[in-house]
Design goal:
Elements lengths: L5 H12 L2 H4 L12 H19 L4 H21 L10 H26 L1
Amino acid sequence: MIVETDGYIELIQYLTGQLPVFTEQSSSARTADYTLRDFMEERLSESMMAVFEQNELDEAVRLDIVRETDAIVYDLEEVLSKVLDTHPTPQQEAFINEFVGLVKNLFDERLQSYRL
């Protein structure tokens, strides 16, 4: 659906270009009592639930989206493996929010093309 698209590949390249956000750990900026992994998974789950709520999808498409989301989580875990169990900084949370929003946009765009 989206993980094989040029848009997603560019999004992963954008993620790798932003790795300094995840390597610069400021102890004074760590305020979260949850891990980066927890935050990332929660944000992706919320975003995919929004996709489901905003679109009338049959079960096959829903399952495709779940599989795609699993692949996205896997990719994120691969790229961010060294910092997933740290507490996110506000800058890291902001980036994850932006990234997840861009992923949702890719899904929305693809689902829109199905309706046309």
